[in-house]
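In full, the data.
>
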Amino acid sequence: MGEYSAEETRYSEERNTMDHSSKFIWALENNDIETIRQIPKSDLHNHFVLGGSRAYIKSRTGFDIWPITKPLFTMDQMHNWSDKNMGARFDTEQMRRLLIEAAFVQAKQDGVTVLEIGEDVWALATYFHNDIDELIDAFKSVNDRIAPHIELRLQIGLSRHCSIEYLQSCLEPFWGREEFYSIDLYGDESAQPIENFIPIYRKARENGLRLKAHIGEWGTAEDVIQGIKLLSLDEVQHGIAAAESDAAVEYLVKHKIRLNITPTSNVLLSRTASIKTHPIAKLYGAGVDVTVNSDDILIFDSDVSKEYLLLYNNGVLGAEELNRIRLNGLRHL
């Protein structure tokens, strides 16, 4: 058989997209989680250490990791959960690699085809012998072995709790490595002023990284906009506090800032009262670029497919709106 023409290939791709969209909408309307899992989707806000398959971890270790069953109210409470359920038993080189595997197993089972995960800069010395090639290979080899169809967007992780000097020292081996797609800042939003990170983010921009940070999960709408301006961010992890200010929402729309939102996490950390009142509806309705993601599956017991179905079943967004969000998460920026 001859090769397909460019027009035929384009038609085939468009048809596949339409088929996926139709199936996704049908599955939402019919409460069919298994069909939702078959449809391509992204997970752009996943902390792999807590973002993997619970069943896979148990099959390999015998450990039961129980999710939370009622809302928490502070970051300390979440850290206490992590200490109790994860703790030192996962604090080895072997276990770190197991958690990477669990993240890809989970993503594959959930139909995720674009997965953005990465490693904390301090982990290079702790788990990978200060060898940046070893760290990169730990992710890429598992990607190739478990789910080669998944597009891995490898991320550099920064903790707000570390000093700038320490982070700058840790970052040296990461600079100039084209394998990394983005950089992300996470942790207690009040740990230190966000302007302290300007030199790091300026360097990250010079290295061609996509700039992200956790803001507006615990902070305010003003914090979201200030962080975007100071660090020249492309995307915000969470950012839901922006919905409290029309001016902030308008800023996000005007500057095309993406918010990678995790609804169940926001509810179970008491950042919003319920799924029914989640601000993703207001943000999407105003034209903000939003995606739906998992955050920490082991804690919150909700993967991306569950998140979409939960939003639909609670009347937050319609099936066609959620499909547009799904497609938005898959596009290249």
